Amino acid sequence: MKAKLFDYVERDNFVYRLSGITKLLAFIFLTFAVMFTYDLRSILCILVFSFFVLRLSEIRFSQIRLMCWYVLIFLLMNAILTYIFDPEYGVEIYGTRHELLRFNSRYTVTAEQLFYQGTKLFKYVSVIPLGMIFLFTTDPSEFAASLNSIGVSYKACYAVSLTLRYFPDMVRDYGDIALAQQSRGLDLSKKEKLTVRAKNVINICVPLIFSTMDRIELITNAMDLRSFGKKDKRTWYAKKPLRACDYGVIAGSAAVFAAVMLVAVFINHGRYWNPFI
User: Fold this and answer.
1) What backbone torsions phi and psi does residue 66 show, to the nearest 5 degrees?
2) What pLDDT was estimated at residue 157?
3) Are strands 99-102 and 108-110 parallel, antiparallel or unpaired?
4) Which pLDDT tens digit goes with each residue over 151-171?
5) How many whole angstroms separate alpha carbon 38 and alpha carbon 70?
6) How confident is the model at residue 251 (pLDDT cuts 50, 70, 90)?
């Protein structure tokens, strides 16, 4: 069966065998490291590592293709807006000016601005594979059990599990409703005008909302009938204990975070690496 966006498909490899809490902590450590620093060297190291782990996890491109398009659009819009509102921000940060191209008195292209925008681009690109790894390789039930094992309320954990499970169902329902509407003559192709296509998408979203409300009511009634929330604790069928490899991954990701902090404090003397001095 072809994997769909947000679907969890069990595979037998190192990444899938890790605990959900291990992948969460590793994601947090590495993401915080990337978001904190503007040292392109550190960011590229994490970027290479994240793509290596993405390849190791054997996630199919069909699962991430649509997300890649969304990310590409977001990155392009972010880069354009950053340049429009502050085309000299890179010059302010690095304290030098190497002009490459001039459009007018306000909009110029400098090496400093290009370097800043490139660094910012790689920051986002290096975090995205980490998020994909966590999202596509973590069983929602096992992740909820892992959260509960570190002290998070099982009610909150169950809410997280239901949320993660809802994404593939929602995408699947949208596809089913879209096919049903198209069989009745609804046109979503590029042949129609953009305004017509937007209106047709709304016609799909309306029954999707109603089906979602029905599912929420159904799940709520099922949980009430089983006295969910009556006890202070609960057991988990999918609970996965931490093993040596989990502790190693947590320690390694924490070490990367610490190394990025040390480089920023003792080598760069700040968050930015300045290659222009």
Assistant:
1) -65, -40
2) 84
3) antiparallel
4) 788 888 888 888 777 777 777
5) 24
6) very high
126 pLDDT more than 70: yes
Tokens representing residue 185 in the block: 């003559």
| Eight-class DSSP state of 272 | B
Torsion, CA 182, CA 64, CA 158, CA 219, rounded to 10 = 10
Q: Over 80-145, what HEC string results?
A: HHHHHHCCCHHHHHHCCCCEEEECCCCCEEEHHHHHHHHHHHHHHHHHHHHHHHHHHCCCHHHHHH
Residue 5 confidence (pLDDT) above 60: no
CA pair distance 73, 43, nearest whole angstrom: 21
Closest by alpha carbon to 29, among 259, 237, 231, 208?
259
H-type helices in the chain, by residue range?
14-17, 20-36, 40-56, 61-85, 89-94, 111-136, 140-149, 154-183, 194-225, 244-262
- Contact assessment for residue 15 and residue 134, using Cβ atoms and an 8 Å cutoff: no
Which tokens in the block code for residue 25? 């902590």
User: Which among 176, 142, 168 has a CA at the least distance from the CA of 7?
Assistant: 168
Identify the residue with better confidence: 7 or 162.
162
Residue 233: CA count within 13 A, CB half-sphere: 4
Q: Where is mean pLDDT largest: 15-29, 53-67, 153-167, 180-194?
A: 15-29
Model pTM? 0.76
211 to each of 82, 140, 204, how far by Cα in Å?
40, 22, 11
